[in-house]
């Protein structure tokens, strides 16, 4: 059974390992330590299988990142993470690589729309699409 709970110190190493598998420029462990309170993890027993980071500023919520261990994809874990953080009061926004069709598709499923492009947002020069979700839009 998968449970969604706040990130705790003991789970940071597993989050860092998934981050390394999922991103070309993984965030260092120090960032997860500093931002521990911003993250939720999906756990199956003691194993972390995915995570999502959010930052709420008044009525706007920024999704910092989300990842699911490749071995656990396609089982609705991202869906569970999204359902935990989304609500119909706040505006949500995020950045996603223009080439990341999978993530873009997942976010579109949950009501996000592309609103702009940030040129050369990533360290390798790739642009980011900015996606926004407005309740009931
Ligand atoms: C994006 C990611 C988090 C999705 O995780 P996941 O647990 O496999 O996704 P889920 O199984 O919960 O699927 C969520 C929805 O997206 C759809 N979906 C998932 N993967 C898909 C794919 N490859 N193609 C099309 N649709 C897909 C599912 O059908 C599902 O739709 P539903 O809610 O209508 O059933 C995962 O692929 C990942 O970690 N990617 C690498 C990291 C990344 O790119 N993160 C985003 C950075 S902005």
Secondary-structure map with pairings?
Layout: E1 2-6, H1 12-22, H2 29-34, E2 39-44, E3 47-57, E4 60-68, H3 77-85, E5 91-97, H4 101-109, E6 113-118, E7 128-133
The structure holds coenzyme A.
Coenzyme A (COA) is lined by residues 22, 65-68, 73-79, 96, 100, 102-103, 105-106, 109.
In short:
The protein has helices spanning 12-22, 29-34, 77-85, 101-109; strands at 2-6, 39-44, 47-57, 60-68, 91-97, 113-118, 128-133. The chain is of the alpha+beta class.
Question: Would you write up a description of this structure?
Answer:
By secondary structure, this protein is α+β, with helices and mostly antiparallel strands. The chain has a single domain (2-133), classed as Gcn5-related N-acetyltransferase (GNAT) (Aminopeptidase), CATH 3.40.630.30. 26% of the residues lie in helices and 36% in strands. It contains four helices and seven strands; from the N terminus they run βααβββαβαββ. It has helices at 12-22, 29-34, 77-85, 101-109; strands at residues 2-6, 39-44, 47-57, 60-68, 91-97, 113-118, 128-133. Strands 1-2-3-4-5-7-6 form a seven-stranded mixed β-sheet, sandwiched between helices. Helix 3 (77-85) links the parallel strand 4 and strand 5. It starts with a strand and ends with a strand. The mean pLDDT is 97. Bound molecules: coenzyme A. The site of coenzyme A has 19 residues, from strand 4, helix 3 and helix 4.
């Amino acid at each position: 059974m998968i449970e969604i709970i706040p990130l705790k110190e003991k789970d940071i190493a597993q989050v860092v390992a998934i981050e390394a598998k999922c991103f070309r420029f993984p965030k260092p462990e120090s960032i997860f330590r500093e931002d521990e309170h911003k993250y939720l993890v999906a756990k199956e027993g003691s194993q972390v299988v995915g995570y999502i980071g959010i930052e709420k500023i008044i009525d706007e919520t920024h999704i910092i990142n989300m990842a699911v261990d490749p071995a656990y994809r396609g089982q609705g874990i991202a869906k569970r993470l999204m359902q935990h953080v989304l609500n119909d009061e706040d505006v949500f926004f995020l950045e996603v690589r223009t080439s990341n069709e999978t993530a873009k598709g997942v976010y579109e499923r949950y009501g996000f729309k592309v609103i702009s492009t940030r040129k050369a947002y990533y360290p390798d020069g790739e642009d980011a699409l900015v996606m926004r979700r407005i309740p009931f839009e």
